[in-house]
């Protein structure tokens, strides 16, 4: 069983393998940790620049939002094995206005029973896209669903996460984390900017997820996840928000013959349920994306995003204090062409059309984005 699971572990949960000490004796810490800088810069043109910056239309914290040149981020990534027991990873993000600690956490390396702990500041593993960084996205901007539900920076916080590999014939990982529930750009559906503190366990933000990997022959593979997030919101005593999610990632990559071709399909759905005085508000958000890597250095991708209006428990429209303007369906369609001069740089041309039912005119956008990577940077999750 173990040899058959090993490829799945390396593909679907690389954190279990990165930084593992080698050999049977005592480990000596590497005094030179892996360091890398990743710069993302984009030139943008909007049909209505004011509209692009209003009503959460470009709601990702690293999205281009203004005509002209935008520094999306400069990321410093640090990682190394601390000792035989822990690995440390950190991501510091520089912008034109300051520096933030995006992630800084330690991961256990030697717990028994196929278990693992992670502690510190980290992006929670709800769904597929939340715990990824801009340099691993197929598109220049963040999915609308993530900004709407979690905030512009994605859901992250100080806390602890425990995970276990289940004894199943296929790869299955069960994880639970608890972090702070405050943060205007990281927990907007929960305490958000109104930090009411932690007085009991229920005041923390809980994430539970099941990640499963299914190899389907030599050429096809499927990653499927189920996620839950629950925590307090500031609208009244004991009022809570819950988010239910499912995500699927289907990949076709010929393994039986030499080929640079790769085809992937990603689907992610969020259903949010938020208790407010005298009502329970609900909404649905979804992202579907198709990517075709048709040559060694070239790929095209297409994405459709959907967001429903907020409704009450009886199904009638309900005024949402978080997004009061979001009173109708919203659709955004995006196309993308990517060229890699090498594995250390990337150029992307992207266009999108955003149709929101509460305004008369659609918002169109065009981006030309360039990315540069220097230094040692570990592999991303499958």
- Going by CATH, the homologous superfamily would be Porin
**Mean pLDDT across all amino acids:** 90
Number of extended strands: 16
CATH fold-level label: Porin
> What characteristic shape results from the CA principal axes?
globular
Spans where pLDDT lies below 50 across 5 or more residues: 1-26
Give the strand order, joined by hyphens, for the main sheet: 1-2-3-4-5-6-7-8-9-10-11-12-13-14-15-16
The first-level CATH class name: Mainly Beta
Helices, by number, come to 3
Ends distance: 21 Å
Q: Helix content range of the residues, please?
A: under 10%
Q: What's the main sheet like?
A: 16 strands, antiparallel, barrel
Give me the Rg, rounded.
21 Å
Total count of domains? 1
What structural class do helix, strand and pairing data support? Answer: mainly beta
Succession of helices and strands: HEHEEEEHEEEEEEEEEEE
At CATH level 2, the architecture is Beta Barrel
Strand content: over 45%
What is this structure's SSE topology?
Layout: H1 2-12, E1 34-46, H2 49-52, E2 68-81, E3 86-95, E4 98-108, E5 115-123, H3 144-149, E6 156-165, E7 171-179, E8 205-216, E9 220-232, E10 240-252, E11 262-276, E12 279-293, E13 298-307, E14 330-342, E15 345-356, E16 363-375
Antiparallel strand pairs: 1-2, 1-16, 2-3, 3-4, 4-5, 5-6, 6-7, 7-8, 8-9, 9-10, 10-11, 11-12, 12-13, 13-14, 14-15, 15-16
